[in-house]
């Protein structure tokens, strides 16, 4: 299995500011994904982070709001820009490792005031 | 991405009883995975079942898959208080990213 860490684990931010979330994997992986989990809800895919090219965003998510970097095969960042209270969620990164299984990081719990 | 549906939304049982959760989805899949989430933390991978498999076991977990009905079930036998968590099914529809079900909140009373 893959070991995934995320920083920060939680944060409280003021509206209008931005937060960058880091995701580090202990091995090289091809596919990395970012998900959002709003309070009491299931997970929704934000984007697929591609190494060496722009991220692929899902419907309803745009690069200006959620810019993503993927500088190498073990690291990615997600920025939540110009935050509003509606962005309060848990943000999770995941990787595909081995035979189809996806492993998830511990999540970043964000509260926007 | 379109979610799958899970039922029940919430389930409360006594320790030692079995818990069954059901997942329905809408499109064809390569595999279906079940995850556990404790108190809004990260997801723990439980089991993966491929589209050509009908049943799979792992410890106290039993997963079934019926691709003709586009449904899956997760059975936890002899439940323990530590099994209290939210459980999610997640479908790999060929995009490699997962589409998640709505989740079942399981409460196991000691």
Strand-helix topology:
The complex is a heterodimer of chains A (113) and B (110).
Chain A: E1 4-7, E2 10-13, E3 19-25, E4 32-37, E5 43-49, E6 56-57, E7 68-72, E8 75-80, E9 89-96, E10 102-104, E11 108-112
Parallel strand pairs in A: 2-11
Antiparallel strand pairs in A: 1-3, 3-8, 4-5, 4-9, 5-6, 7-8, 9-10, 9-11
Chain B: E1 5-7, E2 10-14, E3 19-24, E4 31-37, E5 43-50, E6 55-58, E7 61-66, E8 71-76, E9 85-92, E10 98-100, E11 104-109
Parallel strand pairs in B: 2-11
Antiparallel strand pairs in B: 1-3, 3-8, 4-5, 4-9, 6-7, 7-8, 9-10, 9-11
Could you walk me through the main structural features you see in this protein, from its secondary elements to its overall organization?
By secondary structure, chain A is an all-beta fold. Chain A has strands spanning 4-7, 10-13, 19-25, 32-37, 43-49, 56-57, 68-72, 75-80, 89-96, 102-104, 108-112. In chain A, 0% of the residues lie in helices and 50% in strands. In chain B, a hairpin with a 5-residue loop joins β4 (31-37) and β5 (43-50). Helices cover 0% and strands 56% of the residues of chain B. Chain B has strands at residues 5-7, 10-14, 19-24, 31-37, 43-50, 55-58, 61-66, 71-76, 85-92, 98-100, 104-109. In chain B, strands 2, 4, 5, 9, 10 and 11 form a 6-stranded mixed sheet that branches. At the A-B interface, β5, β9 and β10 of A face β4, β5, β9 and β10 of B.
